[in-house]
Amino acid sequence: MNLRAAMNLRAVWAIYRVEMARAFRTVLQSIISPVISTSLYFVVFGSAIGSRITEIDGISYGAFIVPGLIMLSLLTQSISNASFAIYFPKFVGSIYELLSAPVSYLEIVIAYVGGAATKSIILGLIILATASLFVPLHIEHPVWMLAFLVLTAVTFSLFGFIIGIWAKSFEQLQLVPLLIITPLTFLGGSFYSINMLPDIWRTVTLFNPVVYLISGFRWSFYGKSDVSVGISLGMTVVFLLICIAIVAWIFRTGYRLRN
Amino acid sequence: MPSIISISGVTKTYATGFQALKEINLDIQRGEIFALLGPNGAGKTTLISIVCGIVNRSSGTVTVDGNDINKDYRAARSLIGLVPQELTIDAFESVWATVSYSRGLFGKPANPAFVEKVLRDLSLWDKKDAKAITLSGGMKRRLMIAKALSHEPRVLFLDEPTAGVDVELRQDMWEMVRRLREDGVTIILTTHYIEEAEAMADRVGVINRGEIILVDDKAELMRKLGRKRLLVELRSPLATVPEKLSRYALELSPDGQQLTYTYDNQSDRPGVASLLRDLEAAGIHFRDMDTENSSLEEIFVNLLRQEP
Fold it and tell me: Which residues form the ABC transporter domain (chain B) (predicted)?
């Protein structure tokens, strides 16, 4: 079957374009502020504290934290972009138009998640470029690096989309990123190797899914990782599948959209 | 001619247990202006939302031009334009971008000439580059209509189109609705302004507490249920209505100058001719007389009163 006949690609494009336009309209908030905060991390952790920390796994501390920093922004921005994109029309009521349009759920997800993921991937690359100004960077597996970047951006944009549909208030919208994602990222080895932890805490940490994302991502840079790359990739895909399953359920039941 | 929208056995019970619609059956004819009347909370918006795909129904079927709203949702929804009651627009987009977005969302290829025509028809062309947030309330309402018309729908739903709209815009809107009808667009409007239905509609449906209690031709409805009043201006004032005329249940104005006789086409009250004969016989002379039809509003109020 012809793809154009089977799908409303014009609708996907229309939504995607509006989402991207919003990022450019709020360029200060979407792009510049994460760049500034990343630079601050480098100043504080990389230079001030990092100069007193020896190398980790043979990598200078400043370079070591780069993948973790990118992941930190990638996760939080993917979630906030996607959750806001779908929550806002719900909040102001303009969602009626999306629900009354000849658009399938798959198209809605592709457009919103695609928009959010694109923005956070661009952001990740900007942070990478910013980081290269502070520390000499070396990317051992660039293709895998991009693969992890895209996979993580898509997975967490989907997760953000779910939060956006679930949330009934702006407070709830902030709740999950603030109370769950940020702590998990900080405790997931952004700023240290989990091998530096006592055994018991290392075991506990392995229940933190973010560990696998950061570990795999760091491997693509330096060829060294806390857990094996296969497991990292596997866990990321599992999380992606869980998000897809939840989105499928939401759309099948009309949860908080058509009720 | 087959109806363009066919609603059969549709019910809706919200998760809270509130039953918004009880077994709705309704057919909308192609090319007509149909007014759905009802008090606030009667189920008008729920019914529209179900047809447009915004709310899932609990049971029943709906087809739009023969397309089931679930199985053939793309075909069904492509035919429908919806102007909701609330003004809900992305405030930071320009008028042009907002309307073009709607067209794309409904799968139509970009057509700047058509979008321009829609904006001109709605007197929004000067504002095409303005952000929605800077528009006045009336203009925002027009922008909502422009969005709904952007994809050339065959059926247009107007949910309370003139709520909170000034007189001039209301006239413009009625004019626009008539033009659309001439182009063959079917229009369904909900309102609790009876005058709106009276001025515009070909047929009227009345919904109350989730049930359609009546659907009829507007003229037919007014003929069947409308009351008529005969006002008789007297030559000299009366103190009381003579006993002989009691079967007419006449009302006498406080100054005794005017008699009012209310009758309707269904009741078995005697006709005007016999009243006039009896007035003559009682020696009551009149200077002038006039008749009045009751408005749809009165019909509506009477209908709701009869509800248990």
Answer: 5-234
